[in-house]
Write a structure and sequence with these properties.
This protein has nine helices and twelve strands. The protein is α/β, with parallel strands linked by helices and 268 residues long.
């Protein structure tokens, strides 16, 4: 029997104060796949992340994680689901009064896991993964915007999540720093095979992730077509929301080949 999708929405609608926020949204994200959520501000992208986290409930339809419907779950059951997820918020959302070490340790402290020596080992491991170990004792105020995002990624992956949710992870960053964050997302996808859902306004980042593969031997992104033996394309799809509805779902190739006027304006 086939495994259920890691994330699946079935005909989900949601209304806030008599305003239709989402209307009959359906999609699935399979193991190791990356789904990019696109759309103008207010289209409902961040609301979808909250639904997947179980922070709000759908008005109708189903939100399923590994085939389990979130709607009837108690809060303790939802907490168990959330522990399998990591989330990176826009701007990083670090605790300004805590050092990098304590920020990354926060989730482990909440879960009461392990002696301090083991906690430190894991913190150093994830900071090394995002190339930030040298900043372990710094405060957030001492970090650049890109460094803060990388620390936020380290904090999100400390509990080895199966699912990563990114809410505009490169917003407000310069192109070079934005590319650095894109590399980290690809690294998680291609090294740890994490399933990802990425809210973004940066289509260039999305197409880079769709066409490049993180190669550990080179510690860099390489075109997947150049792999020897030839690799397969990263599992990548796009979902564009328009006024709370699914306007487009498809592959990078299908999006790039579109003749739809609205999509062409969005891509411009």
């Amino acid at each position: 029997m086939d495994k259920p999708p890691v994330i699946e929405l079935r005909d989900v609608s949601l209304t806030f104060e008599e305003k239709q926020v989402l209307s009959r949204i359906s999609f699935r994200v399979d193991q190791g796949e990356t789904l990019f959520l696109l759309g103008v501000t207010g289209a409902g992208k961040s609301v979808l992340l909250k639904l997947i986290l179980g922070l709000i409930k759908a008005g109708s339809g189903q939100v399923l994680i590994h085939g389990r419907d979130l709607a009837p779950m108690r809060e303790d059951e939802l907490d168990q689901i959330r522990r399998r997820m990591g989330i990176v918020f826009q701007e990083g959302a670090l605790f300004d009064s805590l050092s990098v070490y304590e920020n990354v340790a926060y989730r482990l402290r909440e879960e009461g896991l392990g002696p301090e020596a083991e906690v430190e080992r894991r913190i150093r491991e994830v900071l090394r993964f995002v190339e930030m170990e040298e900043a372990i004792d710094k405060m957030p105020s001492e970090l650049s915007g890109g460094m803060r995002r990388r620390v936020a990624i380290a904090r999100a992956i400390i509990s080895q999540p199966e699912i990563m949710l990114y809410d505009s992870p490169t917003a407000g960053l310069d192109p070079v720093t934005s590319h650095t964050i894109t590399i980290q997302i690809a690294k998680l996808r291609d090294v740890q095979h994490v399933t990802s859902l990425v809210v973004t306004h940066h289509l260039q980042d999305a197409f880079v992730l769709a066409n490049y593969f993180y190669l550990e031997q080179k510690a860099a992104l390489v075109p997947w077509r150049s792999l020897n033996p030839p690799g397969s394309a990263p599992l990548t799809r796009f979902l564009l929301l328009r006024e709370g509805q699914s306007y487009f779902q498809g592959t990078p190739e299908e999006l790039a080949a579109t003749h739809d006027d609205y999509l062409l304006k969005f891509l411009a």
